[in-house]
Design brief:
Length: 141
């Protein structure tokens, strides 16, 4: 009983400071300056996520332009993950390193004749990308 009350209190305190506590790990919340989420993406997330699942955004070396976006559902929360919480309560997670390559970008849900998927669009860090939108070359300032 007491540990549940302490847990709820810590969660309330953390959320008031843009921080979320999960099993004694603290994770910084992402802001609009870090990442944007379209209404369509937030709505679709609410439909597809199971309990405990989050949408994970990663950037990895590879792809036809040098770096590629990796987007998947994940239940694991790592120490260096940053969180975005939609108004519907769905969560998006990004690790610190990947955020450096997508900071200021938008997460969208796109449907076309070939596929439907979550995508990173309007990435201010990307100089150019491939035609399918899954990889990019960063600006070299």
């Amino acid at each position: 009983m007491i540990s549940q009350r302490i847990g709820r209190l810590l969660t309330q305190i953390a959320s008031s400071r843009s921080t979320v506590i999960y099993s004694r790990q603290t994770h910084r919340m992402l802001t609009e300056q870090d990442i944007k989420v379209t209404t369509k993406a937030a709505s679709r997330l609410k439909e597809v996520l199971d309990d405990g699942e989050r949408l994970r955004l990663e950037v990895d070396g590879g792809g036809c332009s040098g770096f590629e976006y990796k987007i998947r559902l994940d239940k694991k929360l790592n120490n260096d993950d940053l969180l975005w919480k939609t108004e519907s309560g769905a969560e998006i997670i990004v690790d610190e390193m990947s955020l450096g390559y997508i900071k200021g970008a938008t997460v969208d849900y796109v449907e076309d004749l070939m596929k439907a998927s979550f995508r990173i669009v309007n990435n201010p860090v990307a100089e150019k990308g491939c035609s399918c939108g899954s990889s990019f070359a960063p600006k070299m300032d």
